[in-house]
Amino acid sequence: MLSSVTILVMNAGSSSHKVCLYQLPDPTPRWQGVVDWTKEMGKALVTTKTAQGKWEEVVPVTDRASVLRDFLATIWQGERRVLDRPEEIRVVGHRVVHGGQVYQQPVPIDGQVKATIREMIKFAPVHNPANLGGIELMEEVLPQVPQVAVFDTAFHSQMPLPAKVYPLPYRYFEQGIYRYGFHGISHQYVAGEAAKFLQRDLTDLKVITCHLGNGCSLTAVRGGISVNTTMGFTPLAGVMMGTRSGDIDPGILIYLLREGLTADDLDRLLNRESGLLGVSGISNDLRTILAAADNDRAQLAYQIFIHRLRGAIGSLLANLGGLDALVFTAGIGENSAQVREDVCANWEFWGIAVDPDRNHSRPCPIDISRDRSKVRVLVIPTQEDWAIAQACYEFVVKGVV
Predict the structure, then answer these.
(1) Residue 125 falls inside a structural domain
(2) Count of CB atoms within 10 A of residue 315's CB?
(3) Exposed e or buried b for every residue in 162-200, given b needs 16+ CB within 10 A?
(4) Domain assignment of residue 157, yes or no
(5) pLDDT given for residue 114 in this prediction
(6) How confident is the chain (401 residues) per 10-residue block, as mean pLDDT?
């Protein structure tokens, strides 16, 4: 067993770029940072954190790659540095949203892997370009360091065909149009952590994991395998989200096309202008929605959000034939006691009952169920970056990279 391995994890998105540096097997990041591209037009908010402190600065953006190069250099340069030289990094791990039909496990990155990620841009046009950009940037910054891709779609690859195949002409399934599912790294991680928390074998558990953030998805996990999930061919499907509509009648799209909207118009409408933002008219941030108690549209947006989540849980229960644990995670799932309480309301007939005091407790992970609850209701922080680092570590231990 290796005594210590330095691993850099990159989680690149369209609105932010997150980076964590781990010294495995220690699960605590030695250095972590975020570049937020949405802070101000032409500027980025750069936040870094180490054991020595936290730094925030707003920097001008001429091109994102230059900002990221300077950002990464602070790992081994200046007052924030935690390494003496960049060569100490043994491997770089990347979250990649879409691996298509090809990649169902983490994989060392080579030219063919990059080509597949590029090909999958047509299925994930918001996320895969940013993921690929992060990979290519690290090829410039650390050209001798191997890289590993960990795919959000991989965990859902074993879903049974009735959950995976859409009721379209079968030729479309053969062309790769089917339910892929997303947030897989998070769902797999918290399902495993739930088993540890309950001191149960994951292969014996029936779990519903609720990843609730600006993007939301729920997954039914039976025996450690994803058997159904709410997101589908794209991350647009499923429950209502911050700016995404989730599932709607496809006839609406046909109607809007006939009314003159283009495909790009629909893309913008459904991905960026709908969800909590679209209904409320004020924000995609649930905290703002909850604070607007006197705003009827904001309250309606919240009610739809809860209604859709309850419906998704009911649908996934049918796939499991029972339930041992309901798990909440991600920004909303971990931090909104009200959402957890409202989602679990009226489920006592199924054995789900939340204790109000426990629901408002910290820290996590925590069991917020009442003592009589047959189903354990857990709040477990997701740690996608740590899961990616562990996947990289396994490749190092096996001598693959």
Answers:
(1) yes
(2) 13
(3) ebbeeeeeeeebeeebbbbbbbbbbbbbbbbbbbebbee
(4) no
(5) 95
(6) 84 84 92 85 88 88 86 89 91 92 90 93 85 92 94 94 97 94 95 96 97 95 97 94 95 97 95 95 94 95 97 94 95 95 92 94 91 94 94 90 81
Q: Are residues 145 and 240 in the same domain?
A: no
CATH of the domain at 291: 3.30.420.40
Residues 315 and 380 in one domain: yes
Which tokens is 387 given?
Answer: 């899961």
Q: Is 84 a catalytic residue?
A: no
Number of domains in the chain: 2
Q: Of residues 152, 324, 342, 367, which has the active-site annotation?
A: 152
pLDDT of amino acid 110: 93
What is the extent of the structural domain holding 132?
Answer: 5-151
**Does residue 188 sit within a domain?**
no
pTM over 0.85: yes
Q: How many whole angstroms separate alpha carbon 22 and alpha carbon 8?
A: 6
DSSP for 68-137, please give it: HHHHHHTTTSSTT---S-GGG--EEEEEES--TTT-SS-EE--HHHHHHHHHGGGT-TTTHHHHHHHHHH
Residues 204 and 347 in one domain: yes
Are residues 253 and 372 located together in one domain of the fold?
A: yes
